[in-house]
């Protein structure tokens, strides 16, 4: 039973990571933390509060991708088509909802949302889908490599990532190279059974967090333009925190619940729905929080629950549609 059911602790971690990404976007886009070094202003929170919270939320994206690398992604034509249809449905849905709720509708925008991968509607999903399409090639390449050869490649990618941070530009690491590096790091750790004690993982996470916060506070006084750049995903401290968080949760006593795992299956839709609505939604949510924090928390929770429900409906709808389509011929053709 335990071998067939995924560790529920990891599924709960994936939920927490999506919630953290949601909070990150509220902080960055809603409260305007991204403007901290550009002469802009933040509404409702101090610099110090923003720094502590942002340092806590920032590793979520890379941690989510590390999990995908560690446990692997199963490649199939049906899964690829399913994800593409999910994205188109949510893209259209959030575009229309945003136009109705926030008056952000445009005909040009409607045309672009029909091609969410090509138009980078979600940068994470564009990079994720590229990695998904390359999975057969990546898997064959990994099989042909020795342990040392694989390690050299992973280290080289990490070095490229780290050096790119020295450009001191915003959004460093929010790209295909960044996700590929973390994905392959996860594959290497899984294949060669690289393990970390949960206590050491917790110490590493706390130390990196405190160091990052300290550096950001220091820059806030002497070089404010660097504060937000320190939160780039290619910052080594962010990557180490992401990996440490995974190993800490993995080190906890495993729990197995197929029902809870199924309930949490569409956690990705929390990101798709909220980031699909984008800045106007985050700014509106901040006004609700400022008006009444309890009401704001309620809206936050309802958004998460609603996104999960939408995810379940979309997944089941797409599965039923594809069940009536003969995809096996395409699967066989791809595997010939």
Label this structure with key terms:
14 helices; 336 residues; 73% helix; transferase; globular; mainly alpha; Acyl_transf_3_dom; acyltransferase; transmembrane helix; single chain
User: What ranges have pLDDT less than 50 throughout 5 or more consecutive residues?
Assistant: none
Compute the separation of the termini in Å.
33 Å
Computed CA radius of gyration, to the nearest angstrom: 20 Å
Question: Care to count the β-strands?
Answer: 0
Largest β sheet strand count, sense and barrel closure: none
Strand content: under 5%
The coarse overall form would be globular
How many structural domains?
1
Q: Output the structural class.
A: mainly alpha
Helix content: over 70%
Secondary-structure element order, as H and E?
HHHHHHHHHHHHHH
Q: Overall pLDDT, averaged? A: 91
Number of helices: 14
Transmembrane segments: 12-31, 51-73, 85-102, 122-138, 150-166, 201-218, 230-248, 268-285, 297-318
Organism: Marseilla massiliensis
Keywords: Acyltransferase, Membrane, Transferase, Transmembrane, Transmembrane helix
Protein name: Acyltransferase family protein
What does this structure look like?
The protein is mainly α. The chain has one domain. Helix content is 73%, strand content 0%. It has helices at 8-30, 47-57, 60-71, 77-102, 107-112, 123-144, 147-165, 176-191, 198-222, 236-250, 258-263, 268-291, 293-323, 328-335. Helix 3 crosses helix 10 and helix 7 (147-165) runs antiparallel to helix 8 (176-191). The protein is globular and about 60 Å long. The two termini are 33 Å apart. The model has no long low-confidence stretch (mean pLDDT 91).
């Amino acid at each position: 039973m335990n071998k067939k059911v995924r560790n529920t602790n990891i599924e709960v971690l994936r939920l927490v990571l999506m919630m953290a990404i949601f909070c990150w976007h509220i902080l960055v886009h809603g409260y305007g933390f991204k403007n901290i070094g550009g002469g802009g202003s933040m509404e409702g929170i101090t610099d110090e509060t923003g720094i502590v919270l942002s340092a806590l939320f920032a590793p979520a994206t890379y941690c989510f991708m590390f999990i995908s690398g560690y446990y692997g992604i199963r490649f199939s034509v049906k899964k690829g088509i399913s994800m593409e249809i999910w994205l188109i449905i949510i893209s259209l849905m959030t575009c229309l909802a945003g136009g109705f709720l926030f008056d952000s509708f445009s005909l040009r925008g409607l045309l672009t949302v029909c091609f969410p991968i090509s138009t980078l509607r979600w940068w994470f999903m564009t990079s994720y889908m590229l990695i998904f399409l390359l999975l057969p090639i990546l898997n064959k390449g990994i099989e042909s490599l020795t342990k040392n050869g694989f390690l050299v490649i992973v280290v080289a990618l990490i070095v490229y990532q780290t050096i790119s941070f020295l450009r001191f530009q915003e959004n460093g690491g929010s790209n295909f190279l960044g996700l590929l590096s973390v994905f392959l790091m996860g594959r290497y750790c899984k294949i060669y059974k690289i393990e970390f004690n949960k206590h050491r993982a917790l110490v590493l996470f706390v130390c990196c967090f405190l160091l990052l916060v300290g550096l950001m506070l220091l820059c806030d006084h002497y070089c404010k333009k660097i504060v937000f750049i320190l939160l780039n995903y290619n910052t080594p401290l962010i990557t180490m925190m992401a990996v440490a968080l995974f190993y800490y949760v993995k080190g906890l006593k495993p729990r197995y619940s197929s029902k809870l795992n199924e309930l949490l299956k569409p956690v990705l839709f929390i990101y798709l729905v909220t980031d699909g609505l984008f800045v106007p939604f985050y700014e509106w949510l901040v006004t609700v929080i400022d008006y009444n924090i309890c009401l704001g928390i309620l809206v936050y929770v309802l958004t998460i629950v609603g996104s999960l429900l939408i995810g379940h409906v979309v997944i089941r709808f797409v599965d039923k549609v594809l069940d009536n389509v003969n995809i096996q011929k395409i699967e066989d053709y791809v595997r010939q």
